[in-house]
Amino acid sequence: MGVLLGIFFSSFGIGLSGALMPGPLLSVAVAESYKKGFWAGPVLVIGHAIPELVLAVFFTLGLNKVLHNKVVVGVIGIVGGAFLVWLSVRIFLEVRQGISVDLEAKKEVGWGPLVAGMWASLSNPGWVVWWATIGARYILLSLDHGIAGLVFFYTGHVLADLVWYSLVSFLVSRGRGRISDRVYHGVLYACSLMVLVFAGLFMTNGIMNLLKA
To answer: Which of 7, 10, 69, 138 pairs with 194 at a CA distance of 20 to 30 A?
Structure first.
């Protein structure tokens, strides 16, 4: 159970680090929350999670066949770790440049939060890259613990989006225009450090697997 909880909380933390960075999904969340209130955020996450579940299943089916191939597992670990290093550095630099969250940006979508959430995933090239690197490594790690491992990973990942975008929807529905930069930056710095730690773990594990090949 300890390992499963580790998968869950690390998946949540890395998922949160990605969710916190402003992007198309945030713009849609703000616009839909203005029109539909608090529940726009959770519904948006459901839409976002549907194609993620489909992609996760496809990756699981494919990666299950190479689970015992040390070279493939090692390469995925190193590539996933390198992507995490990039993410950590990007978060750190964005904070240093004074990144903030604008909750007053209004962008008309017209599809409703469920469809908009799905489209925000499918239209984002970085989404597939994330799953092919970090997601793939997490799936391999989770497969060592069967279906339970996959459930804990996916639940932690989706919950990160749910927590953040529910907060955004709540603040927008209450008329808040900003989130405290000090709090936001503090959380992002913590996420950057955490992501860097896991990058080291991913890459170390990848190298160890290559040495055993």
So the answer is: 69
Query: Please, is 25 exposed, middle or buried when counting C-beta atoms within 10 Å of its C-beta (0-12, 13-18, 19+)?
Result: buried
| Secondary structure in 3-state letters for 145-198 | CHHHHHHHHHHHHHHHHHHHHHHHHHHHHCCCCECCHHHHHHHHHHHHHHHHHH
Question: If you ran DSSP here, which 8-state letter would residue 67 be given?
Answer: T
CB 106 within 8 A of CB 30: yes
Phi and psi torsions of 16, nearest 5°: -65, -40
Q: In whole angstroms, what is the distance from residue 119 CA to residue 139 CA?
A: 23
Residue with tokens 């995933």: 121
* pLDDT over 60 (residue 207): yes
Distance, CA of 35 to CA of 109 (rounded, Å):
10
Residue 154: the pLDDT is 94
- The DSSP call for residue 122 is H
Q: pTM of the entire structure?
A: 0.86
* Type of residue found at 19: A
Distance, CA of 186 to CA of 190 (rounded, Å): 6
